[in-house]
Amino acid sequence: MNVAEAVGRCLVAHGVDHVFGVVGSGNFHVTNAMVGAGARFVAAAHEAGAASMADGYARVSGQLPALSVHQGPGVTNALTGIVEAAKSRTPMIVLAPEATSPRSNFYIDLPGLAAALGAGFRRVTAARAVAEVAEACRAAVAGAGQTIVVALPLDVQPQPAGDAEQLARLDAEVTRRGPAVAAAHAAALSSSASGGGGAPIAGLVDALAAARRPVFIAGRGATRRPAEARAALTALADHCGALLAVSAAARGLFAGDPWYLDVSGGFATPLAAELIAQADLVVAWGSTLNMWTTRHGRLISPGTTVVQVDLNAAALGVNRTVDLAICGELAGVAGACLDELTRRAVVLPGWRTPALRARIAAEARWRTVPYTDETGAGRIDPRTLSIALDDLVPAARTLVIVSGNFMGYPSMFLAVPDSAGFCFTQAFQSIGLGLASALGAAVARPDRLTVAALGDGGFLMSVNELTTAARLGLPLLVVVYNDAAYGAEVHHFGPHGHPLDTVTFADTDLAAIARGFGCAGVTVRGPDDLVAVANWLAGPGARPLVVDAKIASSRPSWWLEEAFRGH
Ligand SMILES: Cc1ncc(C[n+]2csc(CCOP(=O)(O)OP(=O)(O)O)c2C)c(N)n1
Ligand SMILES: [Mg+2]
Predict the structure, then answer these.
(1) Which tens digits make up the pLDDT trace of 491-531?
(2) Ligand 1 in contact with 489 (CB < 6 A)?
(3) I need a surface site. Which of 227, 228, 292, 435 has the fewest CB within 10 A?
(4) Cβ(403) to ligand 1 under 6 A?
(5) Residues forming beta bridges with residue 73, ordered by sequence position
(6) Is the CB of 83 under 6 A from ligand 1?
């Protein structure tokens, strides 16, 4: 068995059963080996799309996917999506064939590139290919997660794999233990989790015991094992009367909990902002409390005790000084704190009163906040659009959102069922990734309707993947908040009197473009036009629907003011 085949088969034996990519000569054999071993290959129109599909798939499924690209330009085409994944610590294997001779047209400095992207790097050798791929898979899912570029040198791929006999043992183990995905992940995660036992939790227990108005803010780190994190954090919060909030990246984690304030930060409701500012203790669970989550620090009042708990030691204290930093697995730390508080017989009511519960029920969603509807002159108010979509779209949904002025509207007005139902690719703040991320999400959860909320600029950057959307026939609703502009830039620079010709465009008929790709397409200019969306939802949904929503955009979104402080 040669190295290319051994690598492909070994990946599948480790549970990598989805591979997204564009196939060329350098990744033909390894991709076919994966398919031959039972993996599903999803062909993308462009490597940029393939990278974001793999990232979206990983975020929503919790499984380890592969991205498979051609050497050289296949790799460079995928760079932006790989950086988004790497910054988000998405567990993902990038299969990168490598032309090792600098005289080759395809040559790039692959290890240097991986380092520049912030991704891990491994190069497969003929002698230890199987062991090296196994190590890469384990490293990808260990700890806080990692995106790993696995270099497959072109001259090594056809050589006999020196440790191919290990594959037989792996295959036997997979047969014995059932789907390898769960087994490999569980083993890696439990071995990497330090648990609460080893972490110094006494300081946190003291802080919880002393707090009268505690708030927990959970972040992306809590979404790696969301069910466990939710169970442990809500049990502890119930015991000490804490209120629950999340960073935008973890939106949905506490959905349905009566003490859930939704997002802390620029997207926070007035009620959430008011209550978080009153906290005397903030515990950040897998959140670095960045400028978005804290409104540049202003959401957390001076004098508030701040504790940060994170499995990733490098994340501790990166964005602000904290009174106490604990490195440990979140559920384990929370469970140990609860045990200790119980042992000390400390029962804390916190600030959970019936009156506050009623206020949270009435005011903790944006759609309950009054606004003046600016629909008119053939353009729909994006808030009205988002609220109508929230009513129309089934609750079992995955919402995928990228950067742009528009992004707060769907983020704030559409509910999500859980953290896997919210895919927010913002770590690199790139536009143009959302359509492909949504395709990966839809592959991961075909039982849910995937709703991609995009800006017209970002949509047009990635419109080629509509061909993939039409081919896959997945349940996918693409809503383009179309202001015929790079709205973020218009609202950034317009108030200062700068010319805006470089960031404004003639209107584009996106519904017609969608139909050209074989999708359904409708234009929405007012609430009445949404009947077409209702009809599509009532139908078989065999073709994705693109909604070209011509939105009113006279003013910037209110969260943008916050964003511009970050530039
Ligand atoms: C790849 C990339 N190019 C450029 C930018 C700068 N940028 C940020 S938001 C934005 C405008 C996005 O336009 P659109 O997708 O239509 O959303 P809108 O802001 O209009 O709501 C641009 C160009 C970026 N973030 N990423
Ligand atoms: Mg726009």
Answers:
(1) 989 888 999 999 999 999 999 999 999 999 999 999 999 99
(2) yes
(3) 227
(4) yes
(5) none
(6) no
